[in-house]
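Hey, does this match?
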Amino acid sequence: MTVVLAGGLMFFLTMFATLKMMHFDGVQLPTSTPMAADDNPSWRFRNPEFDQWVSQIKDERAALALREDQLKEWETRLTAENREISTVTQTVTKLQNDFDQRVLQFKDQEEANAKKQIKVIADMSPEGAAAMLNQLSDDDATKLLYLMRPDVSGPILDAMSKLGAGQARRAALITERLKEVLPNSATNSLSSNASP
């Protein structure tokens, strides 16, 4: 250990003597000046890719603003069209209700007229009623006979069938149509009334 201490002491003495012999009189230390923000190279550095990215972001922002304006315009149009459709729908609903009401009135009036006709036909003789029904269309005659009681319509069909072969075929056709409209029990009673 003594050797290490002696070696270290000799090193320091030699260094001190060497430095004492050197002359640093002509050497000037540089003076440090504070750096300005403009002298910093990072502030002056320009990256073309960065400028391109900034330009793309600005373009995308402008495109988004334009798209937003278009969407607001479309929303305004859709709202206006929705109101218009709602108005038209309400108008159509009102017209449909008015039409339905008129159809009901017409049907009520038609039913009242049919009841009057049935009463007139029921008061006639079966032969007179058959002659009058021969002047009507098959649909109208079937409709009137359908609305009559079977005990009234049976003798009229019987009288129609006795007016000749053509009228007998017509009476059979009307009877077939009545079968399609009348329930089975009413058709059976009608057939029994029509037979002599």
